[in-house]
Design brief:
By secondary structure, the chain is of the alpha+beta class. Helix content is 30%, strand content 26%. The structure holds iron/sulfur cluster.
């Protein structure tokens, strides 16, 4: 369990007179991808409107704000954020809106650009003044310098200079633009809602707004919506296909589909494989809500052990308790998860979690179950040991933070306090997901794009 919200969600729509309201609804569906801040930029013939705020979508927007965003607008981009780069502050909330020679440019971005620090330094040396610590602002500056070109060309030329994993939606020149990095590390789906086209990090947002899923935006592809027309441009030379496998393991909602595969079904299969590889005598199987429930149900099914709700989640905790620092995470776990004593007391429990990253959350949950009377706690992880930091949009940027980086399974077991611990192996993960072209770098260190700049200019 990485810690709720270690990534971002993006959405875009053009053209619809209800663009702002639809984007607002879509952000609710993408809330699991980030709870620190939310924002919408809506554009029309008369200009643009922006609103961004700290907190959950329900905290950031009210009827007055939505009324202002909706007035005279027919294009919109929205964003929910968890900080992976850049501190948590309103200045760093997205979408980013800048005014340059050709007009307004709004950018909403999910992912990390590994060479953003080097590009920022270069731009600053040449006189650029930055207002945020966002990678996205680097792209905005690069685009602004190419203002003689149209936004599509300027974006493509700018993105050719950046390396990393990203899905980006933009508004400029009355156009909605979506782009994915050359390896397709971060997801971006394309859909249709009546005559309007929609773009979203996950297909579950389409279900929420009643849109039809058309296809995924391809690696390196740019889609441009102008009026009711859609164009596809091969903006960037394709790289090694490498969709983040963590989308399947943890990030995406179970009702989303990626590469044509339902996320819940994939997680359940990972749980089945985990049970077959690492059986244990136990009375009940339980999963860490919400991301591990599917894998836990698969484990229970394959093991023939009843699945029980051993942990209850409090769903009504706002951003105060979901902050990107360790103390807040620990406090958040206690407030968010409560063991069901009636279920676990005196029982041998298989606790299924999707991952162990820092180990602190797992230790905390194991302790909660023991305090509630669990006789034994056997921890089963539906992914391999997380050993390498992610530079593409997940909040683990140093190896020291990763509990399995330098420890073997027995050492991690002792640290988290479980009676036994076992991980899914890499082969079972790859075979279980059944999608080719995955990034597995946090497990095997084989990064699909070079990460030198992110590691301090090595
Ligand atoms: S390193 Fe891991 S978390 Fe990061 S993009 Fe690759 S698979 Fe996803």
């Amino acid at each position: 369990m990485i810690g709720k919200g270690d990534h971002c969600g993006v959405f875009g729509i053009g053209l619809s007179p209800r663009a702002a309201q639809i984007t607002h609804h879509a952000l609710y569906a993408l809330q699991h991808r980030g709870q620190e801040s939310a924002g919408i930029v809506a554009g029309g013939e008369g200009g643009v409107e922006i609103h961004r705020g700290m907190g959950l979508v329900s905290e950031v927007f009210d009827a007055d704000v939505l009324g202002r965003l909706a007035r005279g607008t027919d294009l919109a981009v929205g964003h929910v954020r968890y900080s992976t780069t850049g501190e948590s502050s309103l200045a760093n909330a997205q979408p980013l809106l800048v005014r340059y020679r050709r007009g307004h440019l709004a950018l909403a971005h999910n992912g990390n650009l590994v060479n953003a620090p080097a590009l920022r330094e270069e731009l600053e040396r040449e006189g650029s003044i930055f207002q945020t610590t966002l990678d996205t602002e680097v792209v905005a500056h690069l685009v602004a310098r190419l203002s003689d070109n149209g936004p599509e060309q300027a974006l493509a030329t700018s993105l050719a200079r950046v390396r990393g994993g990203y899905a980006l939606v933009a508004l400029a020149d009355r156009k909605l633009i979506g782009v994915r990095d050359p390896s397709g590390i971060r997801p971006l789906a394309l859909g249709r809602l009546g005559k309007a086209f929609v773009l979203a990090s996950e297909s579950c947002a389409f279900d929420t707004v009643g849109a039809e899923f058309l296809r995924e935006v391809g690696p390196g592809e740019m889609v441009v919506v102008e009026g009711d027309r859609l164009r596809s441009l091969p903006a960037l030379p394709p790289g090694r296909p490498a969709l983040c496998v963590f989308e399947f393991i943890y990030i995406a909602r179970p009702d989303s589909n990626l590469h044509g595969l339902n996320v819940h079904a994939v997680r359940k299969e990972l749980g089945r494989r985990l049970a077959r590889a690492h059986p244990v005598a136990a009375d009940i199987v339980t999963g860490v809500p919400d991301s591990s429930i599917s894998a836990a149900s698969g484990y229970a099914e394959a093991a023939g052990i009843p699945y029980e709700m051993g942990l209850v989640k409090n769903r009504y905790i706002g951003r105060t308790f979901i902050q990107p620092c360790q103390e807040a995470r620990d406090l958040g776990v206690t407030l968010k998860l409560n063991p069901l004593r009636k279920v676990v007391d005196g029982r041998r429990v298989v606790l299924v979690d999707d991952s162990i990253v820092r180990g602190t959350t797992s230790r905390h949950i194991v302790r909660l179950l023991r305090e509630a009377g669990a006789r034994e706690v056997h921890l089963r992880i539906a992914s391999p040991p997380y050993r390498w930091p992610c530079y593409f949009g997940i909040d683990t940027s140093s190896r020291e933070e990763l509990v399995a980086a330098e420890r073997d399974v027995e050492e991690v077991r002792r640290l988290v306090g479980a009676d036994s611990l076992a991980y899914l192996n890499l082969e079972d993960l790859v075979d279980g997901v059944k999608a080719g072209g995955l990034c597995l770098a946090c497990f095997d260190g084989d990064y699909p794009v070079p990460v030198f700049d992110a590691a301090g200019g090595r």
